[in-house]
Input
Amino acid sequence: MAHDWQPDFEQLVDEHQSMVFSLAWRMTGDRGLAEEVAQDVFLELDRNMNRIESPQHACFWLRRVAMSRSADALRRRKVRGIDLWVEIEENHASQPEERISPLDARIEQLLTTLPEQQRAALILRYQEDLTPEEIAAALDSPLATIKSNLQRGLKLLRAKATCHLKEYIRGT
Amino acid sequence: MEPEPIDEFERELHQAMERRPAPPSLKRRVMQQRATRRTERLHSHTVLWQRLAASLVLAGVLGGTYAWQQKEERRKGEEARRQVMTALRITSQALDEMNSRLAAHDQDKHQQE
Output
C-alpha cells in the first residue's frame, strides 16, 4: 500500500520511548522487565517498519504491541505487584527525574495489584487518555468488556486506595 | 458529546499515571541491537550465497565426471566391437582360404583317379 510518509526509526524511538516504557512499567511493576519489554517492542517495530502507514498508526501500533508484550512478560514472570514495587522503590527512588509524590507512588503500587485486564484498561485510560473505543481497539477486546473493566477496575482501585490512603482520598 | 465529569480521585489517578521518562540506556541498547541484527542478516545472506555457489560448482563437477565416464564407456564399447569384427574378418578369411585349399586338393585327387 503506497503512502507518502517515510518513517524514521530513531525519531520514532525518541518520540515514543517514554510512552512504551511507562506502559510496560505500569503493567509489569518491574522496571528492569519494563526496559526489556520496551526494547523488544522497538526491535519488533524495526522489523515491521514497512507496515507503518502514518505517525498515528505508529503510535497505535506501539501501544498495542507494548500492552501485548507486557502481558506476555507478566505471564512468564508471574510478578507479584506489591512486594516487587516496594523493592523497586528502594532501588530506584533516588532517580531525580523520576521523583514522584508518595500518593502517586502508592496509587501506582495499588494499580499493580489489580487484575491484568482491569489494570490494562485503566492504564490506557488514565496514562494515555484513550476513550473506551480506542482502548477496545488497542487491546483487541469488545467495547462492552472494556467498559466493564474500566468500571470494575476504578471501583476496586478506589476501594483499595480508600483502605490504604485514608488521609489522601477526598473522592465520592 | 460532553466529557463525563471526573472526581478528585480520577484527577489524582491522571496525575499519578503521567508518563515516566525512559532510561537513557533504552535507546542506546535498541540502536545497538538493531545495528547488530542488520550486520548478522547481511552476513547470513553472504554465507547463503557462498554455499549456493559452492553447491553449483560441486554439482557441475559431479555432472561433468559422470558425463565423461559415460563417454569413456561408450568408447570402450566401440573399441571392443571393432576388435570382435576384426577377429571375425580374420576368421572368415582363414576359413575361405581353408575352403580354397580343400577344393584344390579335391580337384587334384579327382584328376589322379
